[in-house]
């Protein structure tokens, strides 16, 4: 009788888990505005189609936001289920509610590394080549919730220039995402600006991955028009995050889909991760603790 009871309980538990997965009819992917909306949707559509087939949901919806904070608030509020963002965006969520999401995966670059760099660029014809050349000039950041476009420069630069960023530069501002920031530098709205790249590969290709690489691939940027003024220490690649409002069995299906994506559809994986990247690896909150601590010290949450 006892064994029958245990078997019945186990069966009910499995059925309950199955019912939870079946209750999820729609999965919602947030897009953070780091690239223009049309390109982000196009680069993510293959993920949406594959995820729908892999999980059995009736629909996977894409929700583009004009900025990072829109997706952050969606993950905190439970209106977004999945997002791939920078580590600072995860830190913003974790500092508000460390139970809201789980960072489950990150990608590895063409060289197998799980990191990238904040890269400061200026127009080549500006004559700016070093940080010393930028003293008293105007600098642009990508977005206040960007890891490479704001947080890391504001942690690392003061150590090199010997003073707070706002004292060294005459003016600071935001470009409204990485792509727009680089375009603003080209349009002379900023003397220099911070974006991101893999730091490996060919300069003329915008390295092997990141915003510069994407812009070159789309024909929006000729690397001969810019110079690299500064490169940060290595930053951990941003996480693929899943809301903890998603049932555990559905979350497992989502994770399995993304783990298999580089093997099953490399072109889709590289489009989604913005570069010639290799695969996904598992991560957890401890992987991003240094970024959480940095955000807390610079922004305060």
From TrEMBL:
Recorded superkingdom: Bacteria
InterPro entries listed in its UniProt record: PhnD, Phosphnate-bd
GO biological process: organic phosphonate transport; transmembrane transport
Tagged with keyword Oxidoreductase: no
Gene3D superfamilies documented for this protein: Periplasmic binding protein-like II
Assigned keywords, A-Z: Signal
Coiled-coil blocks: none
Assigned GO CC terms: ATP-binding cassette (ABC) transporter complex
Pfam families named among the record's database cross-references: Phosphonate-bd
Signal peptide as annotated in the record: 1-21
Protein family according to the UniProt entry: Belongs to the phosphate/phosphite/phosphonate binding protein family.
PANTHER family: PHOSPHONATES-BINDING PERIPLASMIC PROTEIN (PTHR35841:SF1)
Name this protein carries in UniProt: Phosphonate transport system substrate-binding protein
Species of origin: Rhizobium soli
